[in-house]
Design a protein that fits this description.
With about 240 residues, the protein is mainly alpha-helical. About 70% of the residues lie in helices and about 0% in strands. The N and C termini lie far apart (about 115 Å). About 25% of the residues are buried.
Length: about 240
């Protein structure tokens, strides 16, 4: 009975390892050739497995892409949650979230490229609920901004959910600059500068007193309050 359990465990481990190998190969091929240029035969060759074995684990390349997204995004959200739940100032945790995103790119730039570019371009992207995934991330960090608003760290006129959406939008576009080749992804110093610039440009727009007495541009168009129509009367001469 013990031998049977060990054999089953070994088989399960081999199955998991083969699946991970195929998934890793799919990420590399998607990043190199794009969704439309990728074939199952390319993934099998990259993984060093038989063509039919890929279909044993995944129905088609659409399911492969969906799995890449689910795996990559869930890992990212888990790391973001860990930052949000730590003790620290709003600025420290915002920088922590930015660091999580750029560290993911530094460690696995091809996977981040697939998440940012290929998911949106592929027909499979319509079946991947990116909207729900991004909403979950925004809601996760919006609690952080709500707490900061109560404590006075966040400007009183800022909406926590919108602040959270702006943060993730800044991160995504910053990473896109590297993914599409506008910035050299091999330049470690450039990655560090990008992290600092994204965090700074975001924080200087939301932290209390960041603008001094300057009126935010999105509020400068508001009409000033109308002056009272009642005029004070001059005192009568005696």
């Amino acid at each position: 009975m013990g031998q049977q359990s060990k054999t089953a465990a070994d088989n399960g481990s081999r199955e998991s390892e083969r699946r991970r190998t195929i998934l890793r190969a799919a990420i590399d091929v998607f990043a190199r050739k794009g969704y439309h240029g990728c074939r199952i035969a390319d993934v099998a060759k990259e993984a060093g497995v038989a063509y039919g074995l890929v279909y044993h684990y995944f129905k088609n390349k659409d399911e492969l892409l969906e799995t890449v997204f689910d795996t990559g995004w869930s890992g990212f959200v888990t790391r973001v949650r860990a930052v949000v739940e730590t003790e620290g100032t709003l600025a420290e945790r915002v920088r922590g979230i930015v660091d999580v995103a750029f560290e993911a790119y530094r460690v696995d730039p091809r996977a981040v490229k697939v998440l940012i570019l290929e998911i949106a371009r592929s027909p499979a992207g319509s079946r991947i609920n990116r909207q729900t995934a991004f909403v979950d991330a925004i809601r996760l960090s919006s609690g952080l901004f709500a707490q900061a608003k109560e404590s006075g760290e966040l400007r009183a006129d800022m909406d926590p959910q919108l602040a959270s959406a702006l943060l993730f939008g800044n991160i995504e576009m910053g990473l896109t600059a590297f993914v599409v080749g506008l910035t050299d992804s091999r330049d470690v110093a450039a990655l560090e500068r990008a992290k600092a610039q994204i965090a700074d440009s975001f924080l200087y727009g939301v932290l209390t007193g960041a603008h001094g007495e300057e009126v935010p541009t999105w509020k400068s168009s508001e009409k000033p309050p109308e002056k009272s129509a009642t005029k004070s009367r001059a005192p009568k001469r005696t």
